[in-house]
Structures are given as C-alpha cells and as structure tokens.
Amino acid sequence: MTYEFRSYPDREMLAIDLADQLASELRAALSHQDRAALAVPGGSSPGPVFDALCAVSLDWDRVDVLLTDERWVPETSERSNTRLLRQRLLVNRAAAARYLPLYAEAPAPEGALDALAEAIAPALPLSVLLLGMGADLHTASIFPGADRLDEALAADAPILLPMRAPGAPEPRITLGAPVLDGAMKKHVLIFGAEKRAALEAAKGRPAHEAPINAVLTDAVVHWAE
Ligand SMILES: O=C1O[C@H](COP(=O)(O)O)[C@@H](O)[C@H](O)[C@H]1O
C-alpha cells in the first residue's frame, strides 16, 4: 500500500489547493465521460474545502455528488452530514450538481438501504473521492470494532451498508470499502498531530484494525496542523 503524503503550511492553504485539485480531476473526468461522481466526507474537517470547491467553474450539472457515509439523523440535526453538504458544498456554482442522498426518513438505515443503493449504483465507479479519517483510523463509517466491519471490507461488499460501532453515537450508513477503493482518484483529508501520528502508526496493520488502510493505495493524503 503506497500513498502520497502532502503537508501544507496551514488549513486555509490546504483547503484552497485541495479544492483546486478536486476541480481539475472532475474536469478531466468530464472531458471523456458524460457524468462524473464526486464522493465527499462529512464531519468537522471538510467544510473549508467545500467553501472553496463550490465556487469553482466546471460543468456541475454533469456531476453527481454523494457522501461517503451518513449518520442516521434527520437533516435538522447538527450531526447530519447531509446538512453540512447542503450548507457548504451544494451552494454557489455547485448547486447545479445532482445530489444522491445517503439518508431517507426511516427509523433505521435498513429501512431505506436498498432504495438508496439503487440510486447510487448507476453513478459508479466514483470519479473523485475525498475521505476523512478519525483518530481511531475509521474512514467513511467503517469503524474498527463495528458490527459489519468484515462485510464492509470484503472484496464483494455491497455498495452501501448499515453500520453500528462503539465509537459512533448513532447508527450509520456507509459506502463499502471496494466502492471507495475503486475510485479513479482518491484523497484523504486529515488535520492535526494526533491524526498524523495515528496514520503513521497504522502502517502495516490489517484493515480490520485500521480501516483507512483498505483505501490508501494510490491515494493522496492532505495534512495540515
Ligand atoms: O463521523 C465521521 O467522521 C469522519 C471524520 O470526521 P472529522 O470530524 O474527524 O473530520 C468523517 O470522515 C465521516 O464522514 C463522518 O461521518
């Protein structure tokens, strides 16, 4: 597993530069295919990247945008990744993109899983993927110790899986590792010394202990303090 590690002087420069790279890769994908699919994380890290990316000029109406994972909470919740996306990415020029949701009103992810996966399937493979990572080495909602970890990491994992984990306060829904790993371009966004050290310490560990390792081959990791 080899990945490139890019260190930036600060988070603002990282956000601008990374948004620029994502935009270039989307443009390149759109130059030889009708539509491109962009998958992005939720959580606390990607907001500034979204702020820069939503303003770039590209054929957004030919871009499908989806989350890598969602917390099973309504959009009114502060913890909703969809809410973040609607506020910070699906605005400005990027408002023209087609959004493929990872949440529907149902008491649990199992109640909406098939319909959500069916809508995503035609947009695959992902053209451009941006992932986040927790200090526990989870990525998307593939957590160490999660109930369906083995299933999510398997070569024949479904597109979408429900997930429950000790480190996650609510049920989750997540893209499976093969869909993530199969993206044409892969980027991981991490901030802070703790995550950098965790990623370094993850080298050589099996993916069920360090899920991030399932998606790192040929990825670019973007880091700032
Ligand atoms: O819960 C989640 O966590 C990860 C990492 O989030 P961060 O707040 O540490 O940046 C995120 O990538 C994922 O999409 C989200 O659901």
Which class best fits the helix and strand makeup?
Answer: alpha/beta
Q: In what order do the strands lie side by side in the largest sheet? A: 1-10-9-6-2-3-5
By CATH reckoning, the class would read Alpha Beta
Form type: globular
User: Which small-molecule ligands are present, each listed once?
Assistant: the ligand O=C1O[C@H](COP(=O)(O)O)[C@@H](O)[C@H](O)[C@H]1O
Strand content: 15-25%
Specify the CATH architecture: 3-Layer(aba) Sandwich
Order of helices and strands: EHEHEEHEHEHEEHEHE
Question: How confident is the prediction overall: mean pLDDT?
Answer: 98
Taking pLDDT < 50 over at least 5 consecutive residues as the criterion, the unreliable ranges are none
| Rg, nearest Å | 16 Å
Number of domains: 1
The main β sheet shows up as: 7 strands, parallel
Could you tell me the number of beta strands?
10
Number of helices: 7
The residue fraction in helices comes out at 25-40%
Q: What is the name of the CATH topology?
A: Rossmann fold
Tell me the distance between the termini.
Answer: 24 Å
Pfam family, one: Glucosamine_iso
Protein name: 6-phosphogluconolactonase
Keywords: Hydrolase
Function: Hydrolysis of 6-phosphogluconolactone to 6-phosphogluconate.
